[in-house]
UniProtKB/TrEMBL annotation:
EC number of this enzyme: 2.7.1.-
Origin organism lineage: Bacteria, Bacillati, Bacillota, Bacilli, Bacillales
Organism expressing this protein natively: Exiguobacterium aestuarii
Primary location class: membrane
UniProt cross-references to Gene3D superfamilies, sorted A to Z: 1.10.287.3610
The name this protein goes by in its record: Diacylglycerol kinase family protein
């Protein structure tokens, strides 16, 4: 039970301290609200859930990498910057994939509803 509690503490810490984590969570809630409104299929919901899970997981890893790098050095060092930038890039790539997927799933339905 302790590992589960420690993991939850880490997630809550990221939510409290990382603005991007809160943005991703709000985006996830909006995605699922739109999915309910547009009555997406079970398979589409699973695909959306997979993308949301990936983005949030990568954001947690990005936070962990930032903390680890900051623990090692507070100086501006090219390798420290690269580690942080690459981790942030992973989140960006997944976020773009999630957005494109949402557009593919929601786009035709939104088009039909709005026009």
């Amino acid at each position: 039970m302790r590992p589960f509690r420690v993991a939850c503490e880490g997630i809550l810490h990221a939510i409290r301290t990382e603005r991007n984590m809160r943005i991703h969570l709000i985006a996830a809630l909006l995605v699922f609200a739109v999915a309910i409104w547009l009555q997406t299929t079970k398979l589409e919901n699973l695909v959306l859930l997979a993308w949301v899970t990936l983005v949030i997981s990568l954001e947690l890893m990005n936070t962990a990498i930032e903390r680890a790098v900051n623990l090692v050095t507070q100086e501006v060092h090219p390798l420290a910057k690269q580690a942080k930038d690459v981790a942030a890039g992973a989140v960006l790539v997944a976020s773009i994939g999630a957005a494109v997927t949402a557009l593919i799933i929601f786009g035709p339905r939104l088009w039909n509803v709005l026009y």
